[in-house]
Amino acid sequence: MIKKNVICSFCGCLCDDLSITIEDGKITGVDNGCALANAKFLGKERLLKPVIREGDSIKETEYNTAIEKAADILKDAERPLFFGWSGTQGEAQAKGVHLCMLLGGVIDNTSSLCHGPSILAIQEVGHPGCTLGQVKNRADLIIYWGCNPLEGHPRHMSRYTTYADGFFLKNAFRERKLIVVDVRKTMSSDVADEFIQIEPGGDYAVLSALRAIVRGEEKIIPESVSGVSKSQLKRVADMCKEARFGALFFGLGLTMSKNKYKNIRNAVELTDELSRHTKFTISAMRGHWNVYGANEVFTWMTGYPYAIDFARGIPFYNPGETTAAEILYRKECDALMVVSSDPAAHMPKKCVEHMADIPVIQIDPHKNCTSFFTDVQIPVAITGIEASGTAYRMDGVPLRTKKIIDADFLTDTEVISRIYERILEAKADV
Amino acid sequence: MSELLIKNAYVIDPINDIKGEIMDIAIKDRMIADSVSDSAEVIDAKGCLTLPGGVDSHTHICGTKVNFGRYMSPEDMRAGRGRAQPHMYPVSGYSVPTVYANTYRYSALGYTTVLEGAMAPLEARHTHEEFFCTSLQDTMANTLFDGNWSVMEAVSDKDLKRVAAVVGWTLAAVKGFAVKVTNPGGTEMWGWGKDVGCIHQKIDHFGITPAEIIEYLIRANELLNLPHSVHLHCNNLGKPGNYKCTLETMQRTPNLNDKRQTLYMTHVQFHSYGGTKWGDFCSKADDIAWMLNRKPQIAIDMGQVMFGKTTTMTADGPMEFNLYRLYNNKWSNHDVELETGSGIIPVFYSRKNLVNSVMWSIGLELALMTKNPWQCMLATDNPNGAPFVKYPEIIALLMSSRYRDEEFAKIHPDTGKRVHLPSLDREMDFYEIAVMTRAAQAKALGITDIGKGHLGEGAYGDVAIYPIKNNDIDPSRDYSKIIEGFSLTDYTIKSGRVISRHGNCLLNGNNRTIWVKPKISEEYNMSNDPEFVKKFERYYSVSMENYPVEEEYMNKRNICIETETGL
Amino acid sequence: MKFEMITGRTIRQGEFVEHKHSAEYSEETSSCHINPVDMMFLGIMQGDTILLKSVCDEVVMTAFEDSNLKRGSVFVPYGPYCNRIIPNETHGTGMPDFKSSVVAITPTERKVASVYDLFKDIGGREL
Q1: CATH number for the domain including A71?
Q2: What's the CATH code of the domain at B153?
Q3: Shortest CB distance from A295 goes to which of B71, B83, B542?
Q4: B549 in any annotated domain
Q5: What is the ipTM, given to two decimal places?
Q6: 144-163 in A: which are within 8 Å (CB) of B?
Q7: How many other C-beta atoms can be found within 10 angstroms of the C-beta atom of residue A212?
Q8: Could you say which of A243, B35, B236, B550 has the lowest number of CB atoms within 10 Å?
Q9: Residue partners of B482: CB distance under 8 A and separation at least 6
Q10: Do A367 and A413 lie in a common domain?
Q11: Which pLDDT tens digit goes with each residue over B261-314?
Q12: CB contact A200 to C (< 8 Å)
């Protein structure tokens, strides 16, 4: 059997045109997917049963026991941290927020380690963006800044930008110009019409220089800015102004490098400036398939996209203080629940150390580095394969991922709901 | 079966022509009934003002752009924080509050039904997800068609039935309620960084005009027999001199429906501006009201501006960019492929600012100069003119010329030369306020037949009891009591259950989403139309199969209004 | 020699991100891409092990020649190896310096640790 128009729950592109071949209830083929989609849909290894750590050994157990253990840990916690959420369905994210509200904990999603700085910038200067189809149909200039789509989002260029057919472009590939800005050459920069190689940490200065040139102040620009020649900057500024529709996409090259959110602020302000000359938009290349969904769900429920502390009964938000890396580094939390994420692999060692000292609950179909610290890991159905659920694409378009094969696993939503119910019952008993 | 008896209520129920009588209201199993048994729960209204649950026919509370307003505004979140209560979640936000804050605050004002003013079809799931959490109000979504390629192509072909078929397919697919048109053609032009001027400017590529889009959508709307009329946000919002564009749009509106208006024009305050630039900016509310008084086929909402901080958000992308260039504050924009656009910026309406003072006056003038209150709803285009929590102040302004005079004395001193407000001495009564805040809104939306907006037998048991006693209060003098009284109900009852008592929300309100499904023959079913299918295959970034909103996004109580159509 | 360490996603890292206990994941995320001229100055060849030291810790990786990098920068696919030496400082933003931390690189005879070994000494326990 072949299922068409399947939505891929790997990256923020949420490509919805995959064809999946299923034989005897198992996935045997993936068409239209990238290498990452293939790995996801054809992946075999997974945790089959909940596990509980007892001393130095790890024991398989049943859902009920694992859920009870998780509830016990959380009940006893004074300052639990709930982290992850970018790899799960929106319904589970909402349940997670309610669980955190109930316990007065801190909830953060993986944005704090990817586009958190972009959110901080947007909170300062806003975000002139659009949906990906708008770019596909209109844009004759694409800029990728601090990202390498061919590796990070392998089909971004073919579905939405460089190689995508568009309504207003007869021969999209030829009519569209591609600019790549990076500190190193990449697969993506190899296909660019214009590659701007910046010295590490130089993005802010280069963005400022472009803003100045677009404003007609090129005389104040020195011959070279962070390794980029003035003539190239002028050429690029002209390309931007002459475009009918320019679309700037940026990645972690801006959020994780020196100046952090100020880089994004500058990129947004360049977009604002260009909007006075032509049509220009800017968009973040969101990584995990539903990290944007985590931001959306957290926002409508609590008012903030990430890093929310309920310890005082009101939602309190202060990234840099209430973000997961800090809570862990300061050894503040006394329990950690990780949902569909791997902070042990993706956070600096100094933040990971505290995980050894506190109980860790993990809700994830796969063993990962966080599993080295886990006290109870509960495997769940993989959303987009074994369960359906809501996801938000990197441009905010909400889609419903599909269940394409049956599996005997609870969903994230069911597991978190059951933990929630247990805690509620326990609270009622007191 | 649950039974509730509200005794000793001073009832105004305009749809049933009840203009203030002491009576009892019986609710049996969610609905208004003739009588209940002796074992019914009893609420003693003690002669207090009792109205059908409030209906807001134009507000922005759920969906992509609302949530982006929250996302980009932590400062607004901090301005409205509240702790968790026994049956309430903690809340954040003032002008763009969280879903829970919205639902709690609306219920404290006595509102049980709200219409989200703008939903992009492509992003409909988001709106419905938030509706799900808006647990104390029934919800509906205006669905945007201002820049819909398939609609514009059909208009270009002068194919009315095709326009209707596209609209019908889309409304059913995204579980929308009504046809919303925001700056028709302007949002498509904004895809190139441009805008349209008034209604006769041609739209690039499609070669049609806003006037044609409006005309065809109005006729398609009637062909589909939809409960609500076309809901229009006119071209040229916020520009000096735009009243001419608004007047012409009104002038062109046919009268096609005898049950309700043929065109609902929203936040008309923003479209009633005279002058040629900000320097000679003035009110043209008189001309707009004059036209409205001659056009029973049109209903409007005020779009009242109130002083203070708020957030503007609309599908009108180019307008928000213009506003950004005035304020130089933060600006967000979000174009939606093949359909529409949107923009957001925070604003501060200052009483020291002449333009803002004139805007404040215009909204009130529109309401006071419209003879028939059924044609003018009380709304702020929440949160564009002001957050909805300001409604009680607007009610007081409409009921008290003394309050208006006092406020007028505090605004920019040059305002008097540019507006008509000081010469208006009309003071509205409770009946007119009841019309403007629920009855007219329910009628305009076409939901009285399904039991919303009134207290007739068989209607939903949605009731608001305000701590206001008609005989003890002179609204003209005691306007502060009016504000107080309308700010916090003694009881808000939805579907026969108390959902808010003195602002303490008591339980989940069994919210429902109301949506429409026009019955369309196979011949006009767009799912089979090659050109329409091609739009998804080639130009949308989402496949046709993944576009419609699934049943999972509706709770089981949802109300689907199926309509008989001419297709 | 001192270098600016940049980390980032790669296709291979992505393919094995849900299989962190695989040899492929370990191999990919412990590879350190270096400009060939810098490698010459370091006196190392492709496949040699190198020691990366930062202000907070050190870790052994495998050198990988990459002329796409400018001199003075090294690139490491994102994962537990680079995180061993990235400081926790976020400058009040919540975001550590994943793409701008300074490391000293020297040749070493030591072997690349397994993913588990990386976590064992900070209290990680085998599954």
Answers
A1: 3.40.50.740
A2: 3.20.20.140
A3: B71
A4: no
A5: 0.97
A6: 159-160
A7: 18
A8: B35
A9: B392, B395, B396, B399, B400, B468, B473, B475
A10: yes
A11: 999 999 999 999 999 999 999 999 999 999 999 999 999 999 999 999 999 999
A12: yes
